[in-house]
């Protein structure tokens, strides 16, 4: 059996970012929205750099206008994940795109997403948990609205709270209030840091937001003392190698720090982030890591074990998935 066939645990995937381009085109046609400018000639998403990626990403989300659209999206995304033999996935959902941060609207969107997830669990055996996520460049006030949405729906399906978006906007600590709200609601926390920001951004996420996991975190490698701290504290990195290479955080997979971080005792996991944007799947991530770093089944088993331990779910779910 090839390592690409192994069962997989994924902790970092944005539902909007996982929207297949053909799905986006189909919805755009139904709704008579012109988003043709965001596609390349071969039909894939086209962007120049990270800022442009965010613009294209947000343009694509315009086609997602109703809970039913998210129901269909969730089914399509989980079907793709299941085809990579992902058995457990945590998906970032942005209430900003699901009703603009209004709690009543968010409940409707979330209900549709949860229904699709329950169906896919029955049909394809994939378990999904949801992490409402603030979009950093929408600012701290909007992040509080997102945290309110998360608070109001915390439970078996909504188990965490996170933040993505443009890491160059403000500091992690500017969002501490939103993260405090989520923590008080019993939600587990993660923030994108050390993708575009340097080691200081990772330090701030740990210190000011008190997160258990970091989205990406790979630029921690620039500061050996920080790497040691992260390893000792057991902070888990949601590493997305294909994303980092496609967006230019790393020049190539061979130069990616994941293997080095792992050697130094950091708890690393592997995810896709926004798979169609990066021509990635979990199957491809595993395959590429095994080719470039020589990782074998035992290495991937260990990776999966780390991910399952760090998953934002209850122990009964963890045991059912294992
Ligand atoms: N939102 C979706 N993908 C992202 C990424 N790679 N970095 C920050 N925000 C994101
Ligand atoms: Zn991400």
TrEMBL record:
Its cofactor is Zn(2+). Gene3D superfamilies: Metal-dependent hydrolases. Residues 7-322 form the Adenosine deaminase domain. InterPro entries: A_deaminase_dom (IPR001365), Ado/ade_deaminase (IPR006330), Metal_Hydrolase (IPR032466). This is Adenosine deaminase. Belongs to the metallo-dependent hydrolases superfamily. Adenosine and AMP deaminases family. Keywords: Hydrolase, Metal-binding, Zinc. It comes from Celeribacter indicus. Its EC number is 3.5.4.4. One of its GO terms (molecular function) is deaminase activity.
């Amino acid at each position: 059996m090839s390592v690409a066939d192994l069962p997989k645990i994924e902790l970092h995937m944005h539902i909007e970012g996982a929207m297949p381009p053909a799905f986006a085109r189909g919805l755009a046609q139904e709704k008579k929205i012109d988003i043709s400018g965001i596609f390349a000639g071969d039909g894939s998403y086209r962007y120049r750099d990270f800022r442009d990626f965010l613009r294209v990403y947000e343009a694509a989300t315009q086609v997602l206008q109703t809970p039913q659209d998210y129901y269909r999206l969730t089914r399509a995304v989980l079907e793709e994940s299941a085809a990579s033999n992902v058995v457990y996935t945590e998906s970032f959902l942005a209430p900003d795109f699901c009703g603009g941060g209004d709690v009543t609207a968010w409940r409707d969107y979330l209900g549709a997403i949860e229904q699709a997830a329950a169906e896919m669990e029955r049909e394809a055996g994939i378990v999904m948990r949801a992490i409402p996520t603030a979009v950093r460049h929408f600012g701290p006030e909007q992040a509080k609205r997102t945290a309110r949405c998360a608070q109001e729906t915390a439970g078996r399906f909504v188990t965490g709270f996170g933040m993505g978006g443009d890491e160059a906007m403000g500091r992690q600590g500017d969002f501490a209030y939103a993260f405090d709200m989520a923590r008080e609601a019993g939600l587990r926390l993660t923030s994108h840091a050390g993708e575009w920001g340097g080691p200081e951004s990772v330090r701030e996420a740990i210190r000011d937001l008190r997160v258990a996991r970091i989205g990406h975190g790979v630029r921690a490698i620039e500061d050996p003392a920080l790497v040691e701290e992260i390893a000792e504290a057991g902070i888990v990195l949601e590493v997305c190698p294909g994303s980092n290479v496609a967006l230019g955080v790393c020049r190539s997979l061979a130069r990616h720090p994941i293997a080095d971080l792992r050697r130094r005792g950091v708890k690393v996991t592997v995810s896709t982030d926004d798979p169609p944007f990066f021509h990635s799947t979990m199957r491809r991530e595993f395959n590429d890591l095994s080719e470039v770093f020589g990782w074998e089944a035992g290495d991937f088993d260990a990776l999966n074990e780390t991910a399952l331990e760090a998953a934002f779910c209850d122990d009964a779910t963890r045991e059912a998935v294992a």
